[in-house]
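Record Lytic transglycosylase domain-containing protein, 191 aa.
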Amino acid sequence: MKHLLIAILSFAPIADSGADIYKYVAPDGRVYYTDEPKKGFDYRLIIRTRPRTYHHDLKFMSGNKLKFNDLIAKAAAKHQMDPKLLHAVIQAESAYNPNAVSSAGAVGLMQLMPDTARRYGVTDRRDAEQNVDGGTRYLKDLLAMFNSNLTLAVAGYNAGEGAVMKYGNSVPPYPETRNYVQHVLSLYRKS
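=>
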């Protein structure tokens, strides 16, 4: 247990610096965490951090929020979603920067990963309209998957629905995901 505590505590500075965290379980049961997964091993992304430009993008957030407000409202109406939830996710994910790219390869306003984009027919993740539409559909599916449980849907958006299911339909014990859920829900309640 002592080693697990040390590993978790060491995530805080890594997550702050913009590194994604991967987990590998070896055949002998040992668990390894890294920000540089090795090829040929079955590493799983467990913590996806914000784009490196996030703090810089906060300076331009109010202008960009206004710029994308109609697009977000349109996607929310089209998919019967609360626009305040979309704004909360977009603010947490990209600070409204349509060109944001995370070190894990998530792109755009809603930080879509390549597999998620393909799943929702997004051919250009940098296209704000496609990105918001795909991210909105994914969030809607997560809400349906987790019986309208907003906390689990938001956790699934950050860590993936598989991680939420793996931990018995609860928020995965990843510090980044727990912080992300609190942050998004706080933004949602304030709007």
